[in-house]
Design brief:
The complex is a heterotrimer of chains A (272), B (344) and C (287).
Chain A: H1 6-27, H2 39-46, H3 48-80, H4 84-96, H5 103-113, H6 118-125, H7 138-162, H8 166-174, H9 179-207, H10 211-216, H11 224-233, H12 240-271
Helix pairs in contact in A: 1-12, 2-12, 3-7, 3-9, 3-11, 4-7, 7-9, 9-12, 11-12
Chain B: E1 4-13, E2 16-26, E3 31-35, H1 42-50, E4 57-62, E5 65-66, E6 77-80, H2 92-102, H3 107-120, H4 136-148, E7 154-158, H5 166-183, E8 186-191, H6 194-200, E9 203-208, E10 211-216, H7 218-223, H8 228-234, E11 238-241, H9 242-245, E12 250-251, E13 259-262, E14 268-270, E15 281-294, E16 297-304, E17 307-314, E18 327-333, E19 338-339
Parallel strand pairs in B: 3-8, 3-9, 6-7, 7-8
Antiparallel strand pairs in B: 1-2, 1-4, 4-5, 9-10, 11-13, 12-15, 13-19, 14-18, 15-16, 15-18, 16-17
Chain C: H1 4-38, H2 55-61, H3 64-98, H4 103-111, H5 118-129, H6 140-165, H7 168-177, H8 182-210, H9 214-220, H10 227-237, H11 239-270
Helix pairs in contact in C: 1-11, 2-11, 3-6, 3-8, 3-10, 5-9, 6-8, 6-9, 7-8, 8-11, 10-11
Classes of the chains: A mainly alpha (272), B alpha+beta (344), C mainly alpha (287).
C-alpha cells in the first residue's frame, strides 16, 4: 500500500526538496558557483543595499499587517452583529476580494491613485492635494499592501470575534463594566492569541509578496523580494548565489512567523 | 464442537492485555451477548471475530472453518456498527445491495433478495431514500438488512442501539430478536446496558478487563452472580463483606463465605418481626432512612445500625407504616443470600 | 417612554452599519474604477471618463494573444489540479487511514509552501532545471511541477477534512466486511463521498493558480505566456485593454467562487445525519 505514496514522494523530491537543497547549497558558494563560504550571507546581511531592502520589507509588512488587522477587527466585529444571512454575504464578498491582489490590483490602484488617478485628481480639485502621494513609493505600497491584507485578515480573525459571546458582555455590564472596560479586561485578552497569530500570517504574507510591488514599482522601491528577483533572473548579471542567500534569509523569517502562529493556535485551542 | 468456537484469544495493545485468554462457545442459532463496561474488551473481541483487528494468540472457528487469519471479506460474517456506517452516497436499496454486488450476483437476483429484505425490516417505500433522510431507527434497520441480506454465518452487532432513545431502543431490540429467531441467525451482540442484555439474549458473557467473569443464561447471571463485579454490574445488588456485618443487629448469617450479595427485591420488609420462624434465613432490624418512588418500584434505603441496605418492592398502593424513620424488620431467605468472590 | 438599552443598541447598530459600509466601499472602489476605465472612451486627466464604450472588450476577446494566454492559464491550472488530486488524494487517504504515525510529518511537509513564496522556490527551481539533464525551465512542465507544490496545502486540508467528516475508517470497515477489497471500497464508498470536498479544493486551487504571477513570470515568462504575465506586459502599453483584462479576470474568479459556494451548500445538506444521532423519534415501527 505504501506504493501509493511513491508518486507523491517523487514529486516532493523533484519540486520541493531538490530545489530547496539547490538553493541552500548555492547560498554557501562563491560567485562562480564553487566552494564553500559565508560570503554571500555576509554580503546579504551587511551590504547597505540589501540591509535597506530587508528593513523596507519588514517595515512595509509590519505597517500593512497592523493597519490591516485593526481594520479587519473592527469590520469583523461589525459583521458579527448582523443576521446570519447578511453575515454570510459579507464574508463571501470579503472572500472574493482575497483573490484580488498582485498585478491586477496594482493596475487598479494606478487608476485611482496613480499620477493621473481618479482620486488624485479629485483631491487636487477639492483642495485636499496634501493627501496625495507617489504611488510608486514605499508609502504607496503600504496603502496597496494594506488593501490586500484586509480580506485575508477578516478571514482569519472573524471566527475568534464570532466566539466573543454576547453573554460575556452582558455579565460584564451587569457587574458594572463599560464597553471600553469589557474590551480591555475580557475581550482583548481572550482575542490576543489569535490576533498575534493572524498578525504573523499577515506579516509572512506581505514579506513574501512580489507581484504587486513588481507591477507598480519594479526598481523604484527596494524590497527584499524584488532584490531576490533581480539577482536570480539577472537582468544585468545573474547572481544566483547571493540571491539564494537572501532567499534563505527570507525563508527563515517566514518560518519564524509561521511558528509563532502555530504557537498562538495552540494557545487558542487550549483556551477553548 | 460448537458452531462458533473462540479459543484463548489474546490481544495486547500498548502493553495492556485487552483480551486475556478469552474463550467462547456458541451453538447455531443462539443469540449471545457480550456485556460489560467501557474498555472491558467486548468490542475488541467482536472486531477480532470480524477480522478488523488482528489477534496475537488464539483461534477463531466459525461453522467448522478456521477463520483466524482470514481477511474480513473472506470470513462470511455480517457486522452492524454502532454508528451504522451507511454509505451516504447510496440509497437504501443500493446500501443493502452492496454486499450482493460484491458477490457479483446478477441484477435480478439482487433485486429479489433486496426487496425481500426491505419487507422484512418494514421499510417499503423508502428504497430510494438516502440515509440522511431517514430517522435513527430506520437507519439502524437498513444497516441490519445490509448485513442480513448476505445470509452470513454469524451476525455481529456492536452496540447498535446505543445512540437511540430509550423508547426506540426497546422496540428495536425486540425487532432484532424477532428477525434473528425467524432466520435462525447465530448472533453476537455487544452492549454495556444490562437491561438490554437480559431482555434479548439466550446467553450472556459478562466481561471485565479483557476476561470473561461469568457466562450463562440471563436468569443464571441475574439470580446467581459469581463475583463482586458481576453483582455490581448486573443489578442493584447489596454487596457486603463479613466484616461489615459484624456487631450489627443481624442474625442467621451462614458460616462460609467472606463476601455476600443479596438482590434488593429478595429482601422481605415489614413493620412487624416475623415471629413464625418458618423459613430459614437471615433477619435484621433497622429503620427506613429514605423511600424513593421509581415508578413501578418502591426503593427503601434501610439503616441497620450504620449499614446501608437497599430493599425494592413492587409499588403497591396499600403499604402501611413504611415511611422514613419507621422501624422495620428485614428477612432474607437463605437461598437468596449469595456468596460471591471478590473482584480485583 | 424611552428605553435606554434600546437606544444604545440602535446607536450601536448605526456604528456597525457605518463601519461595514466604509470597509466594503474601500474594497470595491478600486474594482469599480477599473470597470469604469474598461468601458470608457477616453479618461486621461479628468475625474470621470469622457464617454462609455464596449469596444475594449470587443478588441480583447478578438485578440489572439489574449485568448491564447487565457487558454494557457486554464490549461496549466487545470492540469496541475487534476494531477495533484490524482496523486495526493490516494496518498493522503492511505496515510490518514493506515499510517497515522506518518501524519505529523505529512502535515509539516504539506504546510511548508506557506513559508516558501514564489520568489523563494523560483530560486531553487531555476538553479536546478535551467540546464543539465532535465532542462524543463521555460516549459509548461516546470510550471506544473511548481504549481503542484503551491496548492499542496489546500488539497491536503480539504481531503483530510473530508475523510474525517465522512468517518472514512468506519465506511471502509463496513465495506470490507460486506466483501469489498480495499481498492473497490475506496472507489465505491470513499471517493463519491469526498467528491464535494475535492470539488471545492479544485476550484479553490484553480483560482489560486489562475491568479499566480511570480512563478509564471520567473520560470517561464514569455515562453509560456499566461494571462497574468500577458497583463503585466500590457500594463505599460494599453491602459484600457489592461483594465478590461483585470475586470474579466475578476469576473472569472467570482464565478469560480460562486461555484464553490454552490457545492458547499449541497454538501452540508447531504452530510447531515448519515451516522447515528441521539434523540431520534421514529413515531412507530409500522405506518
Amino acid at each position: 500500500m505504501l506504493l501509493v505514496l511513491v508518486p507523491f514522494v517523487f514529486w516532493l523530491i523533484a519540486f520541493l526538496a531538490l530545489p530547496f537543497a539547490g538553493m541552500l547549497i548555492s547560498s554557501f558558494q562563491h560567485a562562480d558557483g564553487q566552494g564553500f563560504t559565508f560570503a554571500q550571507y555576509v554580503k546579504a546581511l551587511t551590504h547597505p543595499l540589501y540591509t535597506q531592502s530587508l528593513l523596507n520589507s519588514v517595515w512595509l509588512s509590519f505597517v500593512s499587517s497592523l493597519v490591516g488587522l485593526v481594520i479587519a477587527v473592527f469590520a469583523s466585529y461589525s459583521f458579527t452583529r448582523f443576521s446570519a444571512k447578511t453575515r454570510d454575504v459579507l464574508l463571501n464578498i470579503s472572500n472574493i476580494f482575497n483573490n484580488f491582489s498582485g498585478v491586477p490590483l496594482a493596475f487598479a490602484f494606478m487608476i485611482i491613485l496613480g499620477t493621473n488617478g481618479m482620486f488624485t485628481l479629485l483631491f487636487d480639485k477639492l483642495g485636499m492635494g496634501f493627501l496625495n502621494f507617489d504611488l510608486r513609493s514605499l508609502k504607496g505600497l503600504i496603502v496597496v499592501y494594506t488593501y490586500f491584507q484586509i480580506p485575508l485578515a477578516i478571514l482569519l480573525v472573524y471566527p475568534s470575534l464570532y466566539a466573543i459571546r454576547e453573554e460575556w458582555k452582558e455579565s460584564a455590564a451587569l457587574l458594572g463594566a463599560s464597553t471600553w472596560q469589557f474590551w480591555r479586561y475580557i475581550g482583548v485578552p481572550v482575542l490576543l492569541p489569535s490576533l498575534v497569530g493572524t498578525f504573523s500570517v499577515l506579516f509572512a504574507n506581505a514579506m513574501g509578496a512580489l507581484a504587486t510591488a513588481y507591477a507598480l514599482t519594479v526598481r523604484n522601491v527596494n524590497l527584499l523580494t524584488i532584490q531576490i528577483n533581480s539577482l536570480v533572473t539577472g537582468d544585468v548579471f545573474p547572481r544566483q548565489e547571493l540571491g539564494s542567500a537572501l532567499a534563505v534569509v527570507l525563508f527563515v523569517i517566514l518560518l519564524i512567523a509561521l511558528f509563532i502562529n502555530e504557537k498562538m493556535l495552540q494557545l487558542v485551542r487550549k483556551g477553548s | 464442537m460448537s458452531f462458533v468456537e473462540i479459543s484463548n484469544v489474546v490481544k495486547t495493545y500498548h502493553q495492556v492485555r485487552v483480551l486475556d485468554r478469552v474463550s467462547l462457545s456458541i451453538e447455531k442459532g443462539e443469540f449471545i451477548t457480550l456485556l460489560g463496561p467501557s474498555g472491558c474488551g467486548k468490542s475488541t473481541l467482536l472486531r477480532a471475530i470480524a477480522g478488523l483487528n488482528p489477534i496475537d494468540e488464539g483461534r477463531i472457528m466459525v461453522g467448522g472453518r478456521d477463520i483466524t487469519h482470514l481477511p474480513p471479506k473472506k470470513r462470511d460474517v455480517g457486522m452492524v456498527f454502532q454508528s451504522y456506517a451507511l454509505f451516504p452516497n447510496m440509497t437504501v436499496f443500493e446500501n443493502i445491495a452492496f454486499g450482493l454486488k460484491m458477490e457479483k450476483l446478477d441484477k435480478k437476483e439482487i433485486r429479489r433478495a433486496v426487496s425481500e429484505m426491505i419487507s422484512l425490516i418494514e421499510l417499503e417505500g423508502k428504497e430510494n431514500h438516502y440515509p440522511h433522510e431517514l430517522s435513527g431507527g430506520q437507519q439502524q434497520r437498513v444497516a441490519l438488512a445490509r448485513s442480513l441480506v448476505k445470509e452470513p454465518t454469524v451476525l455481529l452487532l456492536d452496540e447498535p442501539l446505543s445512540a437511540l432513545d430509550a423508547q426506540i431502543r426497546r422496540t428495536l431490540r425486540n425487532e432484532i430478536r424477532t428477525i434473528q429467531k425467524r432466520l435462525n441467525m447465530t448472533t453476537i451482540f455487544v452492549t454495556h446496558d444490562q437491561e438490554e442484555a437480559l431482555a434479548v439474549s439466550d446467553r450472556i458473557y459478562v466481561m471485565n478487563h479483557g476476561t470473561i467473569e461469568q457466562h450463562g443464561t440471563p436468569q443464571e447471571i441475574y439470580i446467581s452472580p459469581r463475583s463482586e463485579f458481576v453483582a455490581n454490574f448486573i443489578g442493584n445488588y447489596n454487596v457486603w463483606s463479613r466484616e461489615q456485618l459484624l456487631h450489627k443487629p443481624i442474625r442467621g448469617i451462614p458460616d462460609r463465605g467472606e463476601l455476600f450479595a443479596v438482590r434488593p427485591e429478595a429482601i422481605h420488609i415489614s413493620t412487624e418481626p416475623d415471629r413464625t420462624g418458618a423459613q430459614q434465613g437471615i433477619v435484621a432490624e433497622g429503620f427506613i432512612s429514605m423511600a424513593t418512588v421509581l415508578g413501578n418500584i418502591m426503593r427503601y434505603e434501610i439503616d441497620v445500625q450504620g449499614l446501608q441496605v437497599t430493599v425494592d418492592t413492587l409499588h403497591r398502593p396499600s403499604v402501611e407504616g413504611l415511611t422514613p424513620g419507621a422501624p422495620v424488620y428485614l428477612f432474607v431467605p437463605e437461598s437468596e443470600w449469595k456468596c460471591i468472590e471478590r473482584s480485583i | 417612554m424611552s428605553n435606554p438599552a434600546r437606544t444604545a443598541r440602535s446607536k450601536g447598530r448605526w456604528w456597525h452599519i457605518g463601519v461595514t459600509s466604509v470597509v466594503l466601499a474601500v474594497l470595491i472602489i478600486p474594482l469599480l474604477a477599473t470597470f469604469l476605465f474598461s468601458i470608457s472612451t477616453v479618461w486621461q486627466n479628468t475625474i470621470l471618463p469622457d464617454g462609455l464604450t464596449l469596444e475594449w472588450y470587443g478588441r480583447l476577446f478578438s485578440d489572439e494573444r489574449f485568448l491564447y494566454a487565457i487558454g494557457r492559464s486554464f490549461l496549466v491550472s487545470a492540469v496541475t489540479v487534476v494531477i495533484s488530486l490524482a496523486i495526493m488524494v490516494p496518498a493522503i487517504f492511505v496515510v490518514v487511514l493506515y499510517f497515522p504515525g506518518l501524519e505529523k510529518m505529512l502535515q509539516s511537509v504539506v504546510l511548508l509552501p506557506f513559508a516558501l513564496p514564489g520568489v523563494v522556490t523560483a530560486v531553487g527551481l531555476i538553479k536546478i532545471y535551467s540546464s543539465g539533464p532535465i532542462a524543463i525551465s521555460g516549459t509548461i512542465w516546470i510550471l506544473i511541477g511548481a504549481y503542484f507544490i503551491v496548492i499542496m496545502p489546500y488539497v491536503y486540508q480539504s481531503t483530510r477534512n473530508s475523510l474525517r467528516s465522512i468517518h472514512a475508517a468506519q465506511l471502509m470497515e463496513a465495506a470490507e466486511v460486506l466483501g469489498a477489497g480495499k481498492v473497490k471500497a475506496f472507489v465505491f464508498v470513499i471517493l463519491p463521498n469526498i467528491m464535494p470536498g475535492m470539488m471545492v479544493a479544485s476550484l479553490l486551487s484553480f483560482s489560486i493558480l489562475f491568479s499566480e504571477f511570480v512563478l509564471a513570470n520567473m520560470l517561464v515568462g514569455g515562453s509560456y505566456e499566461v494571462v497574468q504575465v500577458y497583463l503585466h506586459r500590457m500594463l505599460a502599453t494599453d491602459g484600457h485593454m489592461s483594465s478590461a483584462i483585470v475586470f474579466t479576470f475578476f469576473v472569472i474568479i467570482s464565478l469560480l467562487f460562486a461555484l464553490v459556494l454552490r457545492i458547499g451548500r449541497g454538501k452540508s445538506r447531504k452530510m447531515n445525519a448519515t451516522s447515528a444521532t441521539p434523540a431520534d423519534n421514529e413515531g412507530g415501527v409500522t405506518a
